[in-house]
Amino acid sequence: MANFYTDNEALKFYLNHPMMKKIVELKERNFADADKFDYAPKDFEDALDSYDRVLDIVGDICGNIIAENAESVDHEGPRVENGRVIYASATEKNLDVCRKAGLMGMSMPRRLGGLNFPITPYIMAADMVSRADTGFENLWGLQDCAETIYEFADEEQKQKYIPRVCAGETMSMDLTEPDAGSDLQSVMLKATQKEDGSWVLNGVKRFITNGDSDIHLVLARSEEGTKDGRGLSMFIYDKRNGGVNVRRIENKMGIKGSPTCELVYKDAPAELVGSRKLGLIKYVMALMNGARLGIAAQSVGVSEIAYREALAYAKDRKQFGKAIIEFPAVAEMLSVMKAKLDASRSLLYACTRFVDMYKIYDDIAKERKLEVEEKKESKYYSRLADAFTPLAKGMTSEFCNQNAYDCIQIHGGSGFMKDYACERVYRDARITSIYEGTTQLQVVAAIRHVTTGTFLNWIKEQEANQVAAEDAQVKAVLETMTRQYAEAVEAVNGVDSAEYHDFMARRLVEMAGYTVMGYLLIADAQRDGSFRKSLNVFVRLGQAEVAKHAEFIGNFRPEQVADYLYK
Fewer CB within 10 Å of terminal CB in the chain, N or C? Predict the structure, then answer.
C-alpha cells in the first residue's frame, strides 16, 4: 500500500521544525479549544500527533486513490452539459473520498467546522495531493479561498459559507477576463447595486480554475465610470442562486482534470465582501498570495513525482549492459533534480512558517491588542512572508519545470510516449510558472525586497549561525555568494535608470533565490545530515549561477539595455 506521507521523510522533518512549537501554541491560543471540542489538542505534542495522523490519511488517499485515478482523469477530463461542468468520473470519486475523510477546510477554525490547522501542515497536504494528481490539487486546494472570507467577510458571511467549504463544497476565484489577464486593473465585469441594497453581476470571466464551483470569490467593477483598480470590489457568488453559466471549458495542454472555464454572468446575485473599492488593492492581493503559496506547493509535488519517476526508470533501464543510473551523465541529472527538489521544499516550508506567524498574529489582533513585542514580531514575519511568497512561487515553479524536462530526458524516447507517467507530469508542470502570476510577475513582486534589503538582512542573520565543521567549506561558498549578491544589488541601485533596474531584476532575484535556498539547506543539514548531499550539489549549482549573474551585471553598461528592447 502506497502512502505519500510515510514514504517522504522530508514532510515529517519540516512538520517538526523548531518554529512549529510557537506557531501551534499561538494558533491554538494556548489550547483553549480543548474544553470545547473533543478533537482539539490539549498541548503541543497532542497537536503534532493530530497533524501527523491527518497527514497520514492524506498520504494514504493520495497514494492509493488519487494517484491511481490520475491517468483516467487525464484521459477523460471534464465536460460541459447545459451550462454546467461534469467532472471526470474519477475526479468525483477523489472529491467524495476527501469529503468523507474530513479533508476540506483544514485551516479553518473549529467553530466554523474546520480543523484549525496552521498553514504549514495544510500545505504539506497540498504537496502530497499535487504529487498524486497535479490537476486535482486545483479542485481540492482552492478551499484556501475560504481564508479570504475568514479574513475579510463579516461574521454572518463567515457563518454562512465557511461551514459549507469545511463540509466539502468547492470554491473558485473569478478574477481574469478576456481583456484582463495579469492586468487585473482592467477588469470590467460590472457589479450593480439595486435599490434594496443587493448586488448583481454582469459580464464574462475567462481562465477560471474550477469555474463551476459552489462558492465563487469575484472581482468586479462596482464604481461607475472608473477604469483602474480603485473601482473594483470583491463579491461572493453562490451557485445555488443561479445567474452564471459555463460557456466552455478550455482545451488545455495539461492539468486536464481541472476545468478551466469561461463564465457568463447575467444578473447573478452576489454579496459584497468587506468595503467597496478594496477588491484589488487589499483583498485580491491577500487572495493571490495564498494562491501563490499553493502553486509553490503544487510545484514541489510535481518536482517530487518527476524525480521519483526519473530515479525509478534510471535504476530499471539497462543500456550497454548496465543500468543507466550508473552513467555519470544520468547520475548528475538525478543529483541536480534531487537538489532542486530539496531546496524547493525547504524554501516552501520556510515561507509557510512566516505566513503562519503573521496570519496568526493578525487573527489574534482581532481579539485583543497585541503586545509591543508581538507587534514587532508580526511586522517582521509579515515582511518576510511578503518577500518569500513570490520568491517561492517563482523559484519552485521554474525548478519543477526543469525537473519535469529532465525526467523526460532520462526516459529518452519512452518519455515522449503516453505509456509513462512522465509525459503527463511534463504537461502538468508547464502551467505552474504561468498561472497565479507568471515568473516574470513574481520578479516584479520580489524585487523591492532585493533593493530594500529584506533578503540580504535575512541572509546576514543566517550567516551568523554556526555550522558543523564538515559544512564550513560550503558555508564559505555561501558567504562568497552573499558578497557577490550584495555587490550586484549595490551596483544596480547605483544606476539612475528605471529601465535598467527592470532589466536586471530577474538576475538579482535569482541571485537572492539561490543564496536564500542555500542557507535554508545548510540549516536543514544541521538538523539532519541526509540533506548534506543536496546541500553540496545545490550550492555548487548556485555558486555558478550567482557568479554568472554577477559577471553579467559587472560588465554591462546601462546603455546596452537598448540592444535587448523591441520598439
Answer: C
Least confident of 227-231, 295-299, 396-400, 477-481: 227-231
Work out the average pLDDT over 103-117. Answer: 95
Note whether 277 and 222 are within 8 A (CB).
Answer: yes
Please say whether the dihedral angle defined by the alpha carbons of residues 463, 465, 466 and 467, taken in this order, is positive or negative: negative
560: CB partners within 8 A, 6+ apart: none
pLDDT at res. 358: 96
Please answer whether residues 488 and 430 qualify as being in contact, where contact means their C-beta atoms are separated by less than 8 angstroms. Answer: no
The separation between the first and the last C-alpha atoms of the chain, rounded to the nearest angstrom, is 59
Tell me what the pLDDT averaged over the chain comes to.
96
Q: Which three cell numbers stand for residue 293?
A: 503559496
Tell me if 348 sits within 8 A of 340, measured CB to CB: no
Q: Which string of DSSP letters, residue by residue, matches 15-52?
A: HT-TTHHHHHHHHTTTTGGGGT-TTS-SSHHHHHHHHH
Which of 54, 56, 58 has the alpha carbon at shortest distance from 41?
54
What DSSP designation does 187 have? -
Alpha-carbon distance of 356 to 350, in angstroms, equals 10
Q: What is the DSSP string of 124-161?
A: HHHHHHHHH-HHHHHHHGGGGGHHHHHHHS-HHHHHHH
| Predicted structure pTM score | 0.97
Torsion angles phi and psi, residue 371, rounded to 5? -70, 165
Residue 445 has pLDDT above 90, yes or no: yes
Sequence-ordered list of residues with C-beta below 8 angstroms from that of 526, at least 6 positions apart, any chain: 467, 468, 471
